[in-house]
Specification:
Blueprint (H helix, E strand, L loop, with lengths): L6 H40 L1 E4 L10 E5 L8 E4 L5 E4 L7 H10 L5 E6 L4 H4 L2 H7 L2 E6 L7 H13 L2 E4 L5 E4 L2 E7 L14 E6 L2 E5 L5 H11 L7 E3 L11 H7 L3 E4 L12 H10 L3 E3 H4 L2 E5 L4 E5 L2
Parallel strand pairs: 4-5, 5-6, 6-7, 11-12, 12-13, 13-14
Antiparallel strand pairs: 1-16, 2-3, 2-15, 3-4, 8-9, 9-10, 10-11, 15-16
Helix pairs in contact: 4-5
This protein binds zinc ion.
The site of zinc ion has 6 residues, from helix 3.
């Protein structure tokens, strides 16, 4: 006589089979799923590793955020003491991305807003930043622009009541254990506003980062003849979005970066970064990080070592 098995019996038999014969396989699958979950969660919260082994001690590290603002520039330095410097503020069109990114990383104040030069792709988002944040001070180049964006910026700075500094080579600012040195611009008249870009060096412990705005070969030569040793840096924000107007061999030899960061838009109309610049950079480092490929990039430093990660 054929015996029928009820649902409860099937479940009991299944559990018994798993317990007796397959429990180790089930355990392995469960552990793999757990590892995948942790791995995905880790990448969601910290990004894709691009440079450096392990993870930094966040509590005593400074972090430089190269924010993906398309064909524009914006970098945010957050120091262990909580001080925040924003170097350029992207374009008008990238204001939402910039503000969303700053909010995502819990930025609540800006100690110094550095605007390297008054082109729209560097100052366009500054009005929104000045409206959204308490901006204690602003560092400007002495070159002025004749544009409604620039006029509006000056009005916003005045309304905010920020202390305004004009960058001059040799100036040095300190925030806790970090220091910022102005290496350019040089002169007082410029054919191109790009060559009036503030060139700024950030030192934290034994590590250093160079910010170049859109400086072209003319300004690079001026910076080198002013103090060639001062430009040596671990991380170079490649000038002018990787344009061939900039990043001469002589300048790159003097900087000798371990990591190069390019801020540019995906399939931008200028063809940035240019192949000749990529070739020059490749001769110095295999770590060329690009916002059009990696999204926003974060580089951590504990004063000795560097770690980089990207959004993608
Ligand atoms: Zn630019």
């Amino acid at each position: 006589m054929r015996r029928t098995i009820g649902k409860t019996e099937w479940v009991r038999r299944l559990l018994t089979a798993i317990e007796r014969e397959h429990w180790s396989k089930v355990l392995i699958v469960a552990l793999l799923l757990l590892a995948l979950y942790v791995y995905n969660g880790f990448h969601r919260s910290t990004g894709v590793p691009l440079y450096g082994e392990g993870m930094p001690d966040i509590s005593r590290s400074a972090v430089v955020h190269y924010i993906n603002v398309g064909q524009a520039d914006a970098a945010c330095i957050v120091l262990p003491g909580g001080e925040v410097l924003l170097i350029d503020a992207g374009a008008n069109a990238s204001e939402p991305q910039l503000l969303a990114y700053l909010e995502r990383y819990g930025i609540s104040r800006i100690d110094c807003l550095v605007l390297t030069h008054p082109h729209e792709d560097h100052i366009g988002g500054a009005d929104a930043v000045l409206e959204a944040y308490d901006v204690k001070s602003v560092l400007l180049t002495s070159a002025e622009a004749t544009s409604t964006t620039y006029d509006h910026l000056l009005t916003c700075i005045e309304d905010e009541g920020s202390v305004v500094y004009i960058a001059s080579p040799g100036d040095r600012y300190t925030f806790g254990e970090a220091s910022f040195s102005v290496l350019g611009p040089h002169g007082d008249t410029w054919e191109s506003l790009n060559n009036a870009s503030i060139v700024l060096r950030f030192d934290f412990g034994d590590t250093s980062f160079l910010f170049t705005g859109d400086a072209e070969s003319e300004e690079e030569a001026a910076v080198l003849s002013y103090d060639i040793k001062s430009v040596s840096a671990d991380v170079l924000k490649v000038a002018h979005h990787g344009s061939q107007t900039s990043t001469t061999r002589a300048f790159l030899d003097a900087v000798a970066p371990r990591i190069a960061v390019i801020s540019c838009g995906t399939y931008n109309e200028y063809g940035h970064p240019h192949d000749s610049v990529i070739d020059s950079l490749t001769a110095h480092t295999s770590h060329i990080l690009r916002t059009d490929q990696h999204g926003s990039i974060r580089i951590y430093t504990d004063g000795e070592r560097l770690w980089a990660q990207g959004d993608s």
